[in-house]
Design a protein that fits this description.
This protein is mostly beta strands. It is built from five helices and 35 strands. Strand 15 and strand 16 form a beta hairpin.
């Protein structure tokens, strides 16, 4: 049974959810003179993605969501997108559960307009565009930062809607091993292990995981489609005296995913080395060399190999002048495509220079950035941003910002034989945003309103008797987002509400696969040796097609979880997802007329040792 949530019903859920979480925050705001509670750093964490420099969430002047290590452990999801779904401004669509093609869209910018980074290394397919979100094991990561809004002046192409950055653990303290084994519904087996710590000037983290499942039937009456993933991670850093550091990172995931009509072998990999030097008290430099690989070999009636390798060299200089910081640098990147399909061009280079100023004139804060990209495929692009923040008092900050960004055409759009258009220009965007944040010792709320105008949108059209991608569309992406959090009486509470209007300006229709109203509630409670929690996610309808003729109903999900710490460092955990066994789809195959089913009710039981 598909549950359809009307706009009125979702508005009711949103008001109810906001009321539940804003009520305790009203009390917290009135009693903010009390001593901070343990875990308050979860409410105002240090972030780096929004500014490329450490800033607390209330100082970033951007719309930021941080999913910390405790949340990842408590929810222990099977898929990284289970953590992203329903967060402010975030839409997730998938061709079914367990390793099937998945798209993440921030503020309606689509998968190709949403940037994924892992420890500062960009990872995506240069042929298809966007990241393969379905192939990452959440247990490999310690923290997730979601930055909503244009970030082209910091990261270059494709950061139109925002950036998602996954962080691995650096290691700290004495040797800390962890081992977890589990299994559950759909004949799913899962195991992971890690060792982390630090000694002298050395910090280290090693991890490995394996997951295998028979999967589910992706369409009514179909066969189950399985999935497996094996991942390994190495991260080591070394202090060289008091003023220099070096480090190395390597993360690799590989496996196989079955789908209707075939299966594919995949590899997702990032590797990098860096060196940092404090030249003097006010000047530090960092050099990073990295490589990212997105590899796919498809076995179907149309088999093929589509591999992307991106190699990047980056130089950052940070100058500290009193309360101000200036960051200047340069970046060189090369995309290489290795495929059984003959592309007219199989590589492209990009050279960039950038500068950012973080200026503190308390109570006024100014953040400005400018970046110039020179790409051999589509020429020169200049992006910039300006953000102003004003501390109304010790607890409230108002902000306003303007930024530009662009999405680069993919290799498929530029060079795929018989289909491509080598004359394509990048999509360009301008975003205006205002926001207000309240930050207290035991809670926070963050409200943002934005509008993004996109020009030269790339769409597939019949023009002159030829079906190909063209720069023909314009879009207006606007919305309001609310994030709320509190830690009170051994409860950790989070709520996210989004109202969005992603509109094709030529037709007045909503952009495909974009929900316009979403709600997420997360609650976790500690009682003695137990941790109890649950999540509620609700989204309204979306459309599969650009003409909005094929409507995909909204849905609501409830997930429950419990962890028992039955001995020092030992635990047993059970997760029950989609408790009410809701049948829902977020993507549809219009050619063969079926929706891609997602997993119904499922349960996972895990037992582990965590010495961290």
């Amino acid at each position: 049974m598909t549950v359809v949530y009307s706009p009125l019903r979702l508005r009711f859920l949103g008001i109810a959810g906001a009321s539940l979480c804003l009520s305790p925050l009203t009390v917290l705001a009135q009693s903010d003179t009390e001593q901070p509670v343990p875990g308050v750093d979860r409410l105002n964490p240090i972030t780096v993605t929004a500014t490329r420099a450490p800033r607390t969430a209330d100082d970033t002047l951007a719309s930021v969501t941080v999913i910390d290590e405790a949340t990842i452990r408590e929810q222990d999801p099977m898929d990284i997108t289970d953590l992203l779904r329903g967060q402010p401004g975030v839409n997730v669509n998938a061709n079914g559960s367990f390793g099937k093609t998945t798209g993440v869209s921030i503020r309606g910018a689509g998968n190709s307009g949403t940037l994924l980074m892992i420890d500062g290394i960009r990872l995506r397919s240069a042929t298809a565009g966007g990241a393969a979100w379905q192939f990452f094991d959440p247990r490999m990561f310690e923290r997730i930062e979601i930055v909503r809004g244009p970030a082209g002046s910091l990261y270059g192409a494709d950061a139109v809607g925002g950036v998602v950055q996954l962080f691995t653990s650096e290691g700290e303290g004495g040797p800390s091993p962890s081992v977890t084994l589990g299994g559950g519904s759909f004949d799913t087996r899962r195991g992971s292990a890690s060792l982390s710590g630090s000694e002298g000037g050395t910090r280290y983290h090693f991890a490995a995981s394996h997951m295998k499942t028979d999967g589910i039937a992706l369409r009514e009456g179909g066969d189950k489609k399985g999935y497996d993933n094996t991942s390994a991670l190495v991260r080591v850093s070394q202090e060289l005296g008091d003023s220099a550091r070096v480090g190395v990172l390597a993360l690799r995931g590989r496996g196989n995913s079955e789908y209707i009509g075939g299966d594919n072998d995949y590899v997702q990999q990032v590797a990098g080395v860096y060196g940092e030097l404090d030249i003097n008290d006010n000047w530090s430099g960092r050099v990073t060399l990295s490589e990212a690989r997105d590899e796919l070999e498809d076995f179907s009636s149309f088999p093929g190999v589509f591999n992307t390798k991106t190699q990047t060299a980056r130089l950052d200089n940070t100058l500290t002048l009193g309360n101000h910081q200036l960051i200047v640098g340069a970046e060189y990147a090369q995309d290489k495509v290795d495929s059984t399909t003959h592309y007219d061009t199989d590589s492209r280079d990009n050279t960039a220079v950038f500068a950012q100023g973080l200026l503190d004139f308390s109570p006024l804060t100014v953040q400005a950035a400018l970046r110039h990209d020179d790409n051999e495929a589509y020429g020169n692009k200049l992006t910039g941003s300006l953000a102003l923040g004003y501390d109304i008092d010790d607890n409230h900050t108002a902000r306003a910002s303007y930024g530009t960004a662009f999405r680069a055409p993919t290799f498929n759009e530029l060079y795929y034989p018989g289909f491509a258009n080598p004359d394509l220009d990048p999509e360009t965007s301008k975003t205006y945003e205002v926001g207000l944040r309240g930050q207290y010792s035991t809670g926070y709320w963050d409200l943002a309103a934005y509008q993004t105008d996109v020009k030269k949108m790339i769409a597939n059209e019949f023009i002159g008797g030829r079906y190909a991608p063209y720069n023909v569309n314009k879009a207006r992406l606007r919305g309001v987002e609310l994030g709320v959090g509190a830690s009170v009486y051994d409860w950790d509470l989070r709520a996210a509400l989004t109202w969005a209007d992603p509109e094709d300006r030529a037709t007045g229709k909503r952009l495909r696969r974009e929900a316009s109203q979403t709600l997420r509630l997360d609650a976790d409670h500690s009682v003695g040796d137990w941790e109890l929690g649950g999540s509620v996610i609700a989204e309204n309808h979306r459309y599969e097609d650009a003409d909005n003729n094929h409507r995909l109903g909204g849905y609501g999900l409830v997930d429950l979880r419990a962890t028992w710490h039955f001995a020092p460092a030992w635990f047993a955990r059970i997760n029950v997802n989609n408790v009410f066994d809701k049948d829902y789809v977020t993507a549809y195959n219009t050619f063969d007329d079926y929706g891609y089913k997602n997993a119904g009710r499922s349960a996972m039981l895990s037992v582990g040792f965590d010495g961290r």
